[in-house]
Amino acid sequence: MELLAPAKVNLSLKILGKRSDGFHELETLMVPISLADKLVLAKTEGHGVGFSCDDSSLPCDSRNLAVRAAELFARHTGLDIGVRIFLEKRIPHGAGLGGGSSDAAAVLLGLNQLFEAALDISTLAELAAQIGSDVPFFVHRSAAICRGRGEVVAPMVLPEKLPLLLIKPSFGVATPWAYQRWSTSLEIPGVPYGPQKFGWGELFNDLERPVFEKHFVLADLKRWLLEQNEVAGALMSGSGSTSFALLKGGDLAEALEHKVRQRFGDDFWTAYVVTTLF
Ligand code: C5P
């Protein structure tokens, strides 16, 4: 069985406050995008979960969310599953694109089908929430407003397919660090943090404040992107380090990509994507 695990971007992310369990209360608009990892799931004669990946920098044990998802599925259903999982990694990690969370959700959805367990979406979403805050969003496979710590998912229809250029520097950002620094971080004068309004909603991210303070190049990138005539809006996704430019048209992606490389160097990763339902 072959599955696609799409990445996401956060079009908006508001932090409403810190909770007593250490997490932060959120209201975030997340959308799946056309960049995706590929997973191959195959039943085996033996028992247990075998996992391999084409990216040797990723752990293959239960530190990997995809492995954790398979183990949780087996525990919850009580099925003595034998399965081999192969992951073709296309989504960069430490990037704010939800790659690991999406892989985990795809494993839950895939095993449910492969072993005919007939778990409904709300049960799968409950299992997903035990793996990570973003995983339930990926079980729903739709644009959604996510609340709570991210696990309360209200699917919605985004009226437009948005053309985006993803831009990521060579470093990543650790999500716990970004949240931890949020309450004490300050805005950098001259950097635009305010909401950018569009017909479908607004671009806004509360985590830009702590991340820009540490990684000034991301603040500089956003300010610069907003000055380019191909760009209708610009924002960091999740806790970074990926930012995206909302393009005035998909045909402008290549020109902007070229300018990004000239201004910020070849070590910046870029990818043209569109928002999608999958
Ligand atoms: O849920 P997940 O494991 O993806 O979260 C990673 C870390 O990000 C958490 O341990 C926490 O430090 C932080 N976080 C948070 N509030 C959220 C989501 C994540 O503080 N709503």
Tell me about this structure.
With 278 residues, this protein is of the alpha+beta class. 31% of the residues lie in helices and 32% in strands. It has helices spanning 65-77, 99-114, 121-131, 135-140, 175-182, 208-214, 216-227, 253-264; strands at 2-18, 24-43, 48-53, 82-88, 144-148, 152-155, 163-168, 196-198, 201-205, 231-236, 243-247, 269-274. The strands form 2 sheets. Strands 1, 2, 3, 4, 5, 6, 8 and 9 form an 8-stranded mixed sheet that branches. A hairpin with a 2-residue loop joins strand 8 and strand 9 (201-205). Helix 1 packs parallel to helix 2, helix 2 packs across helix 3 (121-131) and helix 6 crosses helix 7. The longest helix is centred in the middle third of the chain and has 16 residues, at 99-114. It starts with a strand and ends with a strand.
Helix and strand element order: EEEHEHHHEEEHEEHHEEHE
Number of strands: 12
Number of helices: 8
Strand content: 25-35%
Shape: globular
Which small-molecule species are bound to the chains here? cytidine-5'-monophosphate
Distance between the termini: 17 Å
Assign a percent range to the helix content. 25-40%
Radius of gyration: 19 Å
Query: What average pLDDT do the residues reach?
Result: 96
- Structural class category: alpha+beta
Main sheet: strands, sense, barrel: 8 strands, mixed
Low-confidence stretches: none
